[in-house]
Amino acid sequence: MNELIAAIKQAQRITFLTGAGVSTHSGIPDYRSKTGLYAGAANPEYLLSHENLTQHPQAFYEFVTKRMYFPAARPNLIHQEIAALCNEKGTLVTQNVDGLDKQAGNQHVIEFHGNLYDLYCQKCGQAVSYEDFAQDYHHQIDGGIIRPHIVLYGESIASEILMKSAQAIANADLLLIVGTSFRVYPFAQLIQYRQAETPIYAINRESIAAPASVRLIQDDALTVFEEIRKGLETC
User: Which PROSITE patterns match (predicted)?
Assistant: First the structure.
């Protein structure tokens, strides 16, 4: 911990790579645990796919609205500390689609997989509010199918997002991986763009799929960020 806090203090350009483990403390389940978003669902990858949205929009709508939306959730200390550091000297690349990082005031966020609350009609392209989507997946104006602007199974990451993310990694003099097993691609491939001398720390409850050079702090992210906050306050 002392080594990590010292690295954060010394860094001039930090890039964070985060996953579901950041938002679980805000009451949003992860994906694959026993109580996660996919628990009990038959073939959840298909339910959250472009094909299902196209062929069975009702089934897609029921899955995402019942399992993925937590409008009452609020940013926790991890979001807040990452936001403060990013606004001072960094960038966040997150897999999370809950929008909590922006709610925390983070002005330097790349939402790698999109944002559930960025909703639009596929027929006319008009933006739609969550409140309207929660009532019906048909656009009131033209009957088009409303969808969230997130990356579904069977869809590709936008080239602009890939480029911005890679650039954030390449520019960093410190990388922090937080709350992710780092097994989802192409997100997990992003560290290939780092400079060879850039140190990487990972904070996660379980071991992660990452190179041996990654320094793992195997602990709950909230506990670690409480220590980081205390350590930075003493600087």
Answer: SIRTUIN
Instruction: Point out the residues that are catalytic.
Output: 113
Which residues does the chain have with pLDDT short of 50?
none
Q: Rounded CA gap, 76 and 98, in Å?
A: 13
Instruction: Give pLDDT tens digits for 136-189.
Output: 999 999 999 999 999 999 999 999 999 999 999 999 999 999 999 888 889 999
Write the secondary structure of 135-160 as one string of H (helix), E (strand) and C (coil).
Answer: HCCECCCCCCEEEEEECCECCCCCHH
Cα–Cα dist 40/31, whole Å: 11
Does the global pTM surpass 0.70?
yes
Average pLDDT, the chain: 95
Q: What is the pLDDT of residue 235?
A: 57
Distance CA 188, CA 185 (A): 5
pLDDT of res. 159: 96
Residue 190: C-alpha distances to residues 10, 15, 104, 168 (Å): 23, 11, 24, 10
Give the residue from 36, 38, 22, 2 showing the smallest Cα distance to 73: 22
Structural domain 1-28+74-113+156-235, CATH architecture = 3-Layer(aba) Sandwich (3.40)
Q: Nearest CA to 17 among 117, 98, 99, 96?
A: 96
Q: Tell me, what's the pLDDT at 183? A: 85
Q: CA–CA distance from 123 to each of 57, 61, 126, 144 (Å)?
A: 14, 16, 8, 5
Are the C-beta atoms of 24 and 30 separated by less than 8 Å?
yes
Parallel/antiparallel/unpaired status of strands 146-150 and 114-121: antiparallel
